[in-house]
Protein 1
Amino acid sequence: MHLIALLTDFGLEDGFVGTVKGVIKSINSRADIVDISHNITPFDIMEGALVLRASYSYFPEGTVFVAVVDPGVGTERRPVAVKTSRYYFVAPDNGILSPVLKKEKPEKIIHLTEERFFLQRINETFHGRDIFAPVAAHLSRGVPIEEMGREISSLVELDIPVPQKEGGYLVGQIIKFDRFGNGITNIEEIPPFEEIVIKNYRIDRICRNFLEGDSDRPNIIRGSFGFYEVFVPRASAKEKFGLKLGDLIKIKLKG
Amino acid sequence: MHLIALLTDFGLEDGFVGTVKGVIKSINSRADIVDISHNITPFDIMEGALVLRASYSYFPEGTVFVAVVDPGVGTERRPVAVKTSRYYFVAPDNGILSPVLKKEKPEKIIHLTEERFFLQRINETFHGRDIFAPVAAHLSRGVPIEEMGREISSLVELDIPVPQKEGGYLVGQIIKFDRFGNGITNIEEIPPFEEIVIKNYRIDRICRNFLEGDSDRPNIIRGSFGFYEVFVPRASAKEKFGLKLGDLIKIKLKG
Amino acid sequence: MHLIALLTDFGLEDGFVGTVKGVIKSINSRADIVDISHNITPFDIMEGALVLRASYSYFPEGTVFVAVVDPGVGTERRPVAVKTSRYYFVAPDNGILSPVLKKEKPEKIIHLTEERFFLQRINETFHGRDIFAPVAAHLSRGVPIEEMGREISSLVELDIPVPQKEGGYLVGQIIKFDRFGNGITNIEEIPPFEEIVIKNYRIDRICRNFLEGDSDRPNIIRGSFGFYEVFVPRASAKEKFGLKLGDLIKIKLKG
């Protein structure tokens, strides 16, 4: 019996998530459902992709992930399911799986076309309920992914900014803030450096824990998203230093 | 073993929902609990009723629904349980079940009076914890609803506005906004029409998906709540057009 | 098989909670996980402690509580696990367990040092994922708490304000607001009194339910947190009377 993990931008106000779970339980009463997040910023595919990337590998083998941030719901964007060596992913084909599938090699990509695995009446505003939830429930019951549609060879790619080399600098940027106001950057590795520049602040070291940081300037730490983060101890770096998405982190490289 | 689905205005900050679940698990350790929503606007019985109506039918037969938006907690308003052919509903008798029970015929309505199915000490500010949760847990264990109190014949009715015919128009209104800023109306069916008027905008068609809509005016689609909705592609119609609860949708009928 | 109940300040936006659950399910696929709250104000140990205190006793015997509000994550503050006659508690040693352990006598306090019960790679920003979740999962599988580290004799105490006698008054204060805008005080018992003073309002009775209160002044009721609360019917006392944390409640004692 597989675990089903849900990530959406449906929010927790309107009952959308509960409805999705009702659908799953109607198809597989023993499904074990875990929420990753339902508070992805509406329509923000990149944010959903980053949160999924940060969390999926902590789930047990066989987990079926349902990732629905889907501004194109009801249009011709394809509903898909992907099998990797360890997991299943069910999502609209809009790039939300890109960052994960750079780390987990897809073994099979299926365009979901077999309507017998959908709800009988489909509303074009809510495929999370009518297509993705029932498909995930059937997968969790052991229906082979191949039966759910026809195999395709590639998916839409998400254009996530990567750090750039410019002169003697490696230049990254803030791509997300977490609830504590930490600024998650797109920098996974920091080579030997002379200094790091964020806005008008110059930083000369990487912290090992949050309280080691200074209170009067931004600090850098390797965070739990798998990227370096900008923080300030016991407070919101976003608010304290007026950080914004896209703010640059310039690493002056050694030598 | 029945599923228990929870809908409340308790919020997710204070631990109220966790406490309710602890009570359920103490009575039925194998209860399977699903959240519909706990972020109903405080005291907003109609919103709770609409969200319950939109979601309940997607749950498996036998589900026990607990719906607690309860400004009258501790007063003489009655705690009740209702059995329909497919489901159980546990709630304060304040109208929150009205819209559902227009669609699901009640077979038995019980005024919950048997205190042996409540917690032993009852605080008059939290019947969700002390009355509704334990009753639902006992129902999920198979205790017959008849044992839980005395049968009554009717419940408080909720006064939900319905669309009105005025001259050559059918006039509905916005009764809720969802998290995406879509305006849910009280219009379930739209007859053949010449045009639809919302504020100063004139609309000549019903969209089939969100991206088909225009960006510079409100659009109409049949939404997942079972009502027509006012939307704008990839943005909040509420914010973009300054929509408010009660705003009118005037449908100029043909012929 | 034990229940695991989670209380954190991780929020529901970033996937932190989902990741914690993935870790638990990877170690104990049959763990039954219940959320108490993840919306504790960031870094607010006292709020977390109060919410845990209000809810824990409603859970079944054997429940493993994980309470992580942890501004000192990654520093030398100790990760601990506590066994009482009925429950287990896993938390950073920063006072978050103080109010509970005044009510539940600890039988064993363990400083978590056995790294074989942690994740293999530990990020110093996320012990909820890397230390507390796996330890709780192992406890829920029946691993004896003694194996997880060395016994210690005491924990950090939280300095929660208690009501003071001043002249003929018992003086308490507001220590938390709940989602409805009720002001939770630190007063557990109110002796016979002449009047109660909140700001410029004088109150002469304790209400038994919310609707019994007056609409034009603060009212007092014994609330579900186990403390007396300041409220106003069907509205937010916090907003209506401009209440703040620390506002005093002065009880003029009889005789």
Note: The helical segments of chain B are 16-27, 45-55, 98-103, 127-140, 237-240.
Protein 2
Amino acid sequence: MTLEEPAPGSVRPGGRTARIRAAVLRTAGDLLAERGFATLDLAEIAAAAGVGKTTVYRRWGTPAGLVADLLDDMAEQSLPRTDTGSLRGDLTANARLVAKTLTDRRQSRLFAAVIAAATGDPVTSAALRRFYDVRLTEWAPCVEDAIARGEAPAGTDPRAVLSAVSAPLYYRLLASGDPIDEAAADTAARAALDAVAAGTFVTRQAADA
Amino acid sequence: MTLEEPAPGSVRPGGRTARIRAAVLRTAGDLLAERGFATLDLAEIAAAAGVGKTTVYRRWGTPAGLVADLLDDMAEQSLPRTDTGSLRGDLTANARLVAKTLTDRRQSRLFAAVIAAATGDPVTSAALRRFYDVRLTEWAPCVEDAIARGEAPAGTDPRAVLSAVSAPLYYRLLASGDPIDEAAADTAARAALDAVAAGTFVTRQAADA
């Protein structure tokens, strides 16, 4: 039985479509993590996912279209922000979550593959920007709450703070190759907090107000 | 006349080999920047560089081998560190240099292409690590001099400081897509300085001593 032939009575509205999408995205993610973007093939994914080739071509069109949908799905599935009650706690939790993702065997290869794909393809690139936009926006309340609690200067830019936490870990993954561990995560969070405390992430508009 | 047939009398020891290498690496860099790593083809590079195909295959073997040599050449060619007399000045100069590289049309595409290639190829990955190692080591005296001048705490890790300056700019290029400009460069330098001042980049060994 394939995913396109569910057991009688098991089909609810959207169920079959959602199951097909989940199977295809899971397979695409596995293959991206395993072999990267260059050899991604829709017919192979369809066969491995147990879905008709025509369905996959009609719905996703190209490997880049499929990777874009995978990124949108990752953004939808992403965990809500942590709320520990302090900016230090929240940023440390964020840094450790990023470090965990970038050291997980499947996830780290998947991220490296989609980032690599985005460098050469505008559809993937736009989807990657959307993904980081969702993540950065989702965690912004950490900084907004810290401002409200008086832990961060008014006008501190949440996006700059959260980018500062993630950036050193991505730099290790993609550029220097230095190890990504809890110490690296905690240093990234502490360095971001130091810059917050110094007012370095206060936007010019706020500083001028 | 091809590069392999220099004008009589113009050949000095190493001259012909060096000219061939320069032409091949320049062409490889152009094609990488233009189309990325996936379609890099040694025969096409040889033809475009005016060098015999056999020479290119014998010397570089594979596209990954050629990209590795390009990265080694980029490391050799890289400019020495700036010495402005202050850590703030040096790190700002470093950040602006990185921002300039990552916004230059050819250079930004070239870096994105080799970083993308490194995610899927161990030879390229090792060469990329060597490249960043050279850059980070070359700029380390900024931090060592700052420690000697009392501008940074003893035990501050130069590699951590310089990675912190570059990382937010690479994160913009490869992940968030946020603009890379002088303001972003200056904020990256300031944030790194804030963390230096707070002692966040002091290594544990130094802190324990």
Note: Residues 5-12 of chain B have pLDDT under 50 and may be disordered.
Protein 3
Amino acid sequence: MFMGASTKEGQDIAVKSREIVRSLISENIKHLNPGEQAIVERIVHSTADPEYAELTKISENFVKESLEAIKAGEDILTDINMVRAGITSYNGEVKCYIDHTLTYQIAREREITRAAAAMEVALQEGFRGMVVIGNSPTSLLKVIELQEKYPDRIKSVVGVPVGFVGAAESKKALQSTAIPHLITVGPKGGTPVAVAAANALINLSKG
Amino acid sequence: MFMGASTKEGQDIAVKSREIVRSLISENIKHLNPGEQAIVERIVHSTADPEYAELTKISENFVKESLEAIKAGEDILTDINMVRAGITSYNGEVKCYIDHTLTYQIAREREITRAAAAMEVALQEGFRGMVVIGNSPTSLLKVIELQEKYPDRIKSVVGVPVGFVGAAESKKALQSTAIPHLITVGPKGGTPVAVAAANALINLSKG
């Protein structure tokens, strides 16, 4: 498995793609350590958008804490099923509570988004590990809030929600916490960015 | 359900987002018909990337043919599970054959990608309807090839694979066919673009 490719043709494409990615962004990421570089390269490979080399910001302890959680086989928690569906090579469990009965109930009662309610349900159900948020700003804000109630359960956060309303602010809020994190500055981000970061970390954990 | 939001907070965010999207791209999409505008607006809403207003190209018969397939309840076929996971409000079936036993077998025997092999399996299994490709150029090229073998089975194609190797060429190839299509010019595209186009069409079919 290289950059998500499992067949010969897929691997050939991935190898060529990595060369192109490196030619485009190597200057922008030379200040990063090798683990961080691998993550940013994979994000640019997955989005075909070199701008992510500049938008992606990784906290100092993010790679270390994320790899510890992954190597320990702890759960990965996602905000929506699309992100879960993209994290395909993890030996542990990838969970998403957006369709959980309790999630619908909390969202309705408190008039919050299901993606936010799903984070509460996950922590109630005993979640511990890395959180990967690719879509919902309200979900990310909820994680930051829950971190105070459940210290030590959220090991790291890939926080790359997308959108013109609230996404940039939610990522700024995450940046101001002590939670080990990866974010993208501004409105851009999304499920492929989230999935690329998670899959790059899973790959690093095996190497 | 408005722009994918099912709760009050979600809907408030979607309404604000639509205003911002319109302020950013209304000039670029004023030549499109209302159905096409709705699709492009949703793509920009989902990606927070106004560039898609210019990159998205829709063939004349695409909306009509896609809506016919959707209203008839025909299957939607996706290249990867991430795309399937994002198409959440369709009353018909959304299918993906990438994990099918036959797909693994064909990919191995012919040294092609699983995403391409999965298209063959789908057509062998009787698929008929709209195809939504958000990731794999080889999958899109295979659909174009299969169209000749199975005329009238592929009603329309959302063809927005992403990547620096082969994606732009595969979309150009689709543009040169008579298949009703939506593409994004160049390397950019991806699962959120594919999902946004499909969900916008599903929404249009209900309105």
Note: Chain A has one domain: 52-205.
Protein 4
Amino acid sequence: MSISTISWVNGNVKIIDQTKLPLKLQYITCRDVKTLWKAIKVLSVRGAPALGVSAAFGVLLGIKTFKGNDRKRFVAHVLKTCDYIGTSRPTAVNLFNALDQMREVLVFCPDASVAELKKRLKSQAFAIYEEDRKVCRRMGDFGARLIKANNRIMTVCNAGALATADYGTALGVMYSSKKKKRKCKVYACETRPLLQGARLTTWELLRAKIDTTLICDNMAASLMGQGKIDAIFAGADRIARNGDTANKIGTYSLAVLARYHKVPFYIVAPRSTFDMGIESGKQIPIEQRSKEEVTSFGGRPTAPKNVKVYNPAFDVTGHKLITAIVTEEGIIRPPFKVNIKKKLL
Amino acid sequence: MSISTISWVNGNVKIIDQTKLPLKLQYITCRDVKTLWKAIKVLSVRGAPALGVSAAFGVLLGIKTFKGNDRKRFVAHVLKTCDYIGTSRPTAVNLFNALDQMREVLVFCPDASVAELKKRLKSQAFAIYEEDRKVCRRMGDFGARLIKANNRIMTVCNAGALATADYGTALGVMYSSKKKKRKCKVYACETRPLLQGARLTTWELLRAKIDTTLICDNMAASLMGQGKIDAIFAGADRIARNGDTANKIGTYSLAVLARYHKVPFYIVAPRSTFDMGIESGKQIPIEQRSKEEVTSFGGRPTAPKNVKVYNPAFDVTGHKLITAIVTEEGIIRPPFKVNIKKKLL
């Protein structure tokens, strides 16, 4: 993939401004944490794995301006920076995992100088970045085993190159499948309210020359009812120990529809998405987003001002609706409680 | 209801321009058939029952300009006008039913003069209009029996006053329920791509002071999964003899989700929506609409230009997913094949 969603360039974080896609391929150069924080907040950069990399790079931005050699002050500064970055997207487990990995550097080097810590934080951030790239390829290769030639696949939101530092999660499966000469046809759900499917998924799939058809979210059942969908692949924002999966709003809807129509429903996500600290999806907090995302479009109102709105960013798909979860360690099938532990612990 | 969706004023058809809602309450005065044809085509006026009334009034517009007393020429002119109106929305059965009722006037008055025919066509059109108003009230009253106080109801598209000459079909149930002092809370699915739910349903429900929450279509399952929906009410564009129902795209999706979550799923439609000539939903042609409805919004593109699009206007909900059909003759329950015949023939 030639899409560079996030990279470290001359001491700054360079990201694609995904709010401008598909109209313009425009980059944002984040020279400080605040700019990056805002980019995460307004979804200029999004997608679970890309958020992990962003958080790690964000810490590097935060320490750029630190002056002096006072270790205690430096540690406090890094921890504060981590906490600050954590407030940008409170539901994103990858973001917190990456921040924890950065914090561990401090814990494991109790005697290191400020200069040494800076160096180690930098290598940790780059390790997270490189790991994401490797992990994408491995997930793609495992997932491609689930695809037959000419399969018609449905996907939701953007779980692609734009959501990671490389190949994507759910879309990585399609890229890998294409590389193996097993072409597939993709139906992308537009994914209201922010249209990540329409704006981002179609954009990157067309760039990769994959046969892509855009649909509104409420058309998915119509296609399944006609027997036109062979499998559904979605990403994940957080997966509980029992396999319950939080992902973009609408994912649960597709999973229920898939069950009714006997279509296999797959989640593709790296181990960093698993939150082994929570037993089930009931413990996953659901971010509620602003009313205006639903009542207006491009600044133009589309509903009466005084209407109430329900606008959850995610929903939780119970593990019973999931056929398998594709990870970099292989394909995990039910019973998930047992097999997730076996594969990932 | 104080909403006058369609009316005959000084020899012209006055309609609310629904493409302008909810921003502006603006009327279009159709002085000729062509203007009305276009208004139907671009959905300035829509909704199955309102289309029936529009078609009947359209015939009156068509005969306004007819000069002379040549009966043969007049009949040909009326038939041509009817055919022309029929091309505006080829899927709308109410439109064709109304046109057939207008044609019947010609058949049943073989000896009438042009002046006499004009008079009879006018009373026929007004009879269709009055009938729609009566039928709305009756459906609303029957449907309200299915609602308990404080029920949380979901609806799709706009099956309200804006879709009829009076009270609406699915929303009529809520209006009637409110009149009977059984308040309910309504969740309106925005209904992509044209957002009739966001633009029209919320607008008219708020005017009627009904507690209304707007959601994106892909959020419906999330609410049902949390046990927050007590019933779903939808309108219909065409119902086959076995109860299979074509309605706005996304209706089938809600019906499948309702079945999974054990939520009752009701269709509200007048007998004019039933097409006894077709045995099942398989025979209902599905109108495919333009790609631009999905790839742009308010003139602003939201997806790459070269992406393919699947944009059906309707889907068909199999009768097995329908709990009951509310008509002006009463509530029809399964087995539909038998009971539709019993109630409506």
Note: The first strand of chain A starts at residue 6 and ends at 9.
